[in-house]
């Protein structure tokens, strides 16, 4: 890093540190007139009625500010239908642009550091949605600071071999959570496996050791894995693109929301995120 | 890699880069086309010329496209990355004196690899014997053991378990101990008609039986049952795989080979013959499948484009396929395969040393460390005329090569001061965006096979599925060429 960059880097940490956690959300929703403000970059004129876009205010463009959080945007494959249906596949991609790290368009963003979180919110039959309720629903999913365990995993190699709900080279988080109860002693022993590497517990494939991590860090990771794996209607997908399948229609619900939140934390420790809501019928 | 900065990251992505312009020169086909261009055979009168999109320019996609081209069909290969060859990747850059190494597909065998050998002959490539699995030292519980010591330990164990029975002892007089299971499985081979059809020949019920049960039923000794260790392996899977191995002669003594100059010589030869039919940097985003053709949406240099064809030969691994939207949705059996198929994730580390330092310690350099940062090491490119040597090390995916070097130095069975390693190159397949991982895992568990087979290779609409993972054994380049030729034939006949 040259001196200028170092300076900017330090500056940004201070900046991020003294900012209030301004996660109050602004909503753009094509459904609800009078609520359609465009925040941030690239307007959303061409959004279909099935989409609602939530921009955290700190994504807004502020010319007087030297360091800005990265701009993150979820793009969904073009489709003709207004609404999403149960058990349908959806293709997504995520654009990331950061003044220092670069642009995902030019492969300058480390793809493993971009994460899409998907949350399913059921809507009980007969109840129509109003503005307040939607806001409430979103409040529930409003992002607290990212779990430190997840952050550590993004900067490590874990997602090369593990996925949240599907088996990969290593067991899925849900398999791990099913096998180990979320107790301090299990966290400790999983942390040990992460630190030292492992073979033979699940199969004959090796997991690499991670001597660069501390015991505390691996414990936080283990805690995250056990929490995340146990969540039924929540999925974590790393990377800039992919597909996911909307769940099958649950017995008691006719409608639901899929809340998609993409996030990226820049080298300057600034987090940018973007949420999109899919209405499922 | 916690505080990865932009500069380091960009350097790491060079191999998987966006365009050929940032490829190291040596990774691009070295020589211009010197071989005669393969002239398309005049297609047989009855078969119509078909337009085929081949998805993926790994060895399987290249081979499939080449076969179809030779038959006179119109092919376009869409490859997402900036190079062709996929998991076949030879490295020259960064190594001195003309040394090189194969970061990816490592070797091939004789007997075996029949389809692969045909290309070697057709392209007149030069083949070298490869001795990296001989004279191995293995670190077990922290102690270095020779093959002989291990053999002795094996014999002791057999004795402790009560010894082999008469039949087994007789059998082992003329067969290696690694073939012991054949004694009990060979009688089951007769019923196989097609090596791609394990089901429907009277063994379906064996999918949920363990292969140990077969050994027991056939009267195997306790020692044999314990040593063959098949409690968790389905009998159907075990018998089927043993049949394929037997048919291809893999239970005889295998000889290992590699291509002089690196195994990429073959994929380069295929790619050169296909010429501009291979389109690099074209990532497939969506596939529309129908009874009459396929329509593909892909991204070329950031621009979204569409292309239609009569057929698709899909030679992408499931890690890439998962990211593509296929409409209409494929059947649940296929989807299961996409969601659950797992691959080995390995890091390959190439060391360059100033000399054959291990000779001073009078030991073999074929070393199995069984350490989480260093599984094995052996010498490569030993024919290159220089004192320097290149060594290939394997570690689990995500391993830092300097930790591998550290483990090597710490555990090396000779004098540490003799080690004169001066360079380390790394290829971590687990972090490759295009070729995510190495060989696929098997389906050996009880009740597993029918979840994957034959769905993994089943045609849906106009999409035919190839790639090493779709073949009946997962041995890289053999499975890749077999599946490619199968798909080319399927499309030819369709």
Walk me through the structure.
- The complex is a heterodimer of chains A (281) and B (494).
- Chain A has 281 residues and is of the alpha+beta class.
- Helix content of chain A is 25%, strand content 26%.
- Chain A has 6 helices and 10 strands.
- Chain A has helices at 3-18, 131-141, 148-155, 173-179, 184-196, 215-230, and strands at residues 25-29, 51-56, 71-76, 89-98, 102-103, 114-124, 234-238, 241-245, 253-265, 271-280.
- A 6-stranded antiparallel sheet of chain A has the order 1-2-10-9-6-7, with helices on one face. In chain A, strands 3, 4, 5 and 8 form a 4-stranded antiparallel sheet that branches.
- In chain A, strand 9 and strand 10 (271-280) form a beta hairpin.
- The radius of gyration of chain A is 20 Å and the shape is globular.
- With 494 residues, chain B is an alpha/beta fold.
- Among the domains of chain B are: 31-88 and 263-341 and 442-493, FAD/NAD(P)-binding domain (3-Layer(bba) Sandwich); 147-255, no CATH class.
- Chain B contains 15 helices and 21 strands.
- In chain B, a hairpin with an 8-residue loop joins strand 18 and strand 19.
- The model of chain B is unreliable at 1-37 (pLDDT under 50).
- The chains are: A alpha+beta (281), B alpha/beta (494).
- The interface between A and B is large, with 40 and 45 residues.
Key terms:
heterodimer; A: 281 residues; alpha+beta; 6-stranded antiparallel sheet; 4-stranded antiparallel sheet; 6 helices; 10 strands; globular; disordered N terminus; B: 494 residues; alpha/beta; FAD/NAD(P)-binding domain; 7-stranded mixed sheet; 5-stranded parallel sheet
């Amino acid at each position: 890093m040259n001196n200028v960059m170092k300076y900017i880097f330090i500056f940004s940490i201070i900046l991020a540190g003294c900012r209030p956690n301004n996660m109050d959300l602004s909503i753009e929703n094509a459904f609800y007139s009078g609520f359609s403000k465009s925040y941030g970059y690239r307007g959303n004129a061409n959004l279909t009625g099935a989409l609602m876009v939530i921009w955290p205010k700190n994504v807004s463009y502020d010319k007087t500010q030297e360091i800005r959080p990265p701009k993150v945007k979820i793009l969904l494959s073009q489709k003709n239908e207004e609404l999403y249906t149960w058990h349908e596949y959806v293709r997504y991609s995520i654009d990331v642009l950061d003044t220092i790290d670069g642009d995902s368009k030019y492969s300058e963003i480390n793809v493993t550091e971009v994460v899409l979180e998907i949350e399913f919110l059921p809507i009980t039959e007969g109840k129509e949605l109003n503005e307040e309720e939607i806001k409430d629903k979103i409040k529930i999913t409003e992002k607290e600071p990212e779990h430190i365990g997840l952050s550590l995993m993004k900067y490590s190699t874990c997602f090369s071999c593990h996925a949240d709900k599907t088996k990969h080279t290593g067991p899925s988080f849900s398999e791990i959570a099913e096998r180990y109860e979320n107790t301090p002693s299990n966290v400790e022993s999983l942390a040990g496996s992460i630190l030292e590497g492992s073979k033979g517990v699940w199969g004959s494939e090796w997991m690499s050791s991670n001597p660069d991590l501390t015991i505390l860090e691996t414990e936080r990771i283990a805690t995250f894995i056990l929490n995340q794996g146990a969540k039924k209607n929540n999925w974590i997908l790393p990377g800039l693109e992919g597909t996911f399948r909307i769940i099958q229609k649950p017995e008691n619900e006719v409608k639901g929301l899929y809340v998609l939140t993409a996030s990226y934390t820049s080298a300057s420790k600034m987090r940018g995120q973007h949420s999109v809501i899919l209405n499922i019928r | 890699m916690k505080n990865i900065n932009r500069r380091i990251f960009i350097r790491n992505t060079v191999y998987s880069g966006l365009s050929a312009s940032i490829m190291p020169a040596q990774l691009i086909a070295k020589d211009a086309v010197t071989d005669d261009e393969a002239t398309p055979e005049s297609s047989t009168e009855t078969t119509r010329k078909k337009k085929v999109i081949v998805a993926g320019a790994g060895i399987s996609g290249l081979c499939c496209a080449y076969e179809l081209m030779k038959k006179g069909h119109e092919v376009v290969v869409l490859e997402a990355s900036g190079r062709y060859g996929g998991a076949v990747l030879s490295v020259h850059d960064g190594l001195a004196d003309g040394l090189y190494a194969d970061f990816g597909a490592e070797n091939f065998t004789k007997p075996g690899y029949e389809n692969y050998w045909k290309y070697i002959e057709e392209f007149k490539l030069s083949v070298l014997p490869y001795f990296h699995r001989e004279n191995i030292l293995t670190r077990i519980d922290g102690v270095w053991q020779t093959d002989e010591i291990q053999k002795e330990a094996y014999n002791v164990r057999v004795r402790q378990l009560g010894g082999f029975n008469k039949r087994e002892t007789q059998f082992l007089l003329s067969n290696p101990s690694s073939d012991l299971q054949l004694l009990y499985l060979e009688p089951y081979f007769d019923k196989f008609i097609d090596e791609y059809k394990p089901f429907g020949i009277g063994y379906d019920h064996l999918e949920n039986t363990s292969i140990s049960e077969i050994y027991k039923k056939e009267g195997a000794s306790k020692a044999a049952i314990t040593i063959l260790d098949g409690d968790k392996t389905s009998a159907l899977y075990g018998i089927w795989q043993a049949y394929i191995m037997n048919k291809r002669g893999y239970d005889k003594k295998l000889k290992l080979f590699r291509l002089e100059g690196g195994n990429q010589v073959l994929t380069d030869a295929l790619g050169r013959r296909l010429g501009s039919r291979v389109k690099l940097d074209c990532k497939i985003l969506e596939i529309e499948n129908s009874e009459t053709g396929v329509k593909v949406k892909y991204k070329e240099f950031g621009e979204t484009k569409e292309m239609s064809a009569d057929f698709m030969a899909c030679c992408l691994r499931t890690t890439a396929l998962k990211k593509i939207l296929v409409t209409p949705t494929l059947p649940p059996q296929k989807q299961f395969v996409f969601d659950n198929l797992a691959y080995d994730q390995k890091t390959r580390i190439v060391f360059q040393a100033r000399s054959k330092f291990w000779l001073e310690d009078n030991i073999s350099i074929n070393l199995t460390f069984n350490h989480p940062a260093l599984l094995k090491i052996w010498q490569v490119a030993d024919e290159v005329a220089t004192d320097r040597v290149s060594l290939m090390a394997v570690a689990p995916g995500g391993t830092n090569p300097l930790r591998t070097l550290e483990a090597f130095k710490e555990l090396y069975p000779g004098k540490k001061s003799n080690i004169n390693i001066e360079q380390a190159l790394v290829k971590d397949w687990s972090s490759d965006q295009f070729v995510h991982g190495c060989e696929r895992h098997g389906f050996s568990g009880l009740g597993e096979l029918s979840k994957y087979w034959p769905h993994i290779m089943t045609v849906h609409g106009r999409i035919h599925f190839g790639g090493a993972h779709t073949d009946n054994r997962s041995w890289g380049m053999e499975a890749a060429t077999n599946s490619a030729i199968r798909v080319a034939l399927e499309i030819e006949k369709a």
